[in-house]
Amino acid sequence: MKSMIIIVFMLILGIIVGRLDWLDTEKMFLLNVDNVLWILLFLIGIITFANMAIEDLKKISFKILLVPFTAILGMLIGVFFVKIFINRSLWDLMAVGSGFGYYSLSSVIIKHAKGAELGALALLTNIFRELLTLIFTPLFVKHFGPLSPIVSGGATSMDVTLPMIVKYAGVNYTFVALINGTILSLLVPFIVSFFVSL
Amino acid sequence: MSISFFVALFLGAIVGVLVKKNKLFLKIVNFSMNLSIYTLLFVMGLEIGKNGFILENLVKIGVESFVFSAVLVLVSVSLTKFLKI
Q1: Count of CB atoms situated within 10 Å of the CB of A136
Q2: Predicted model pTM
């Protein structure tokens, strides 16, 4: 609970400071998401390989593919539930859902094919997916197990949400998260394009 | 994810193998990672706060997109209860 409060606090603090334009993000190295991520991935590399044995790597099997498969299945089932609350075409909702957190790419594809409104919905939905994963990772790990934040993070499990996954699920899940994120990121343009064409 | 992130991960992996037994160094790395996670969250908030397009649309379709993502996340994490790898 304490960690979730700190996470939300840091996010809200950032939003307030950004809205009020108190900091010049262009001039400070650490005020750029990519730079912070670069440092974090370097640190994750150290932590993972310092705590992992070669035997742990050998345990990784093709079953790892079940993780992105679960993320896709979760999206398909989830969209049917979403249809109850949101009055839009099923295919449009499928297109938005299949962004898997990769908001920059999916929102651009959807905006070009279906217009600005659905593009904005895709952008916000996928940003929320990323934020919800960041905020609730400690809770997900506790109640649903270490694979849950990886599936929830979707394509972002290989970058933005990876540090939280490693921190709360453990270093043994670094590779699962990386593979899941890579597969979903590669699939996003194809799945989104497929659904917008329907 | 740009290729530079993989390079960072790879460089970290090399350092990780080299410092395997250095407990103090790993403690410092662990502390730095925690600090960096909170910095990342702050910077992400900062980018959202600075982005007028996101905030403007948040008012218009914020609830709709929040419900959408919450349902997707809930269904996805529920499915992992049955997932064994």
Answers
A1: 23
A2: 0.88
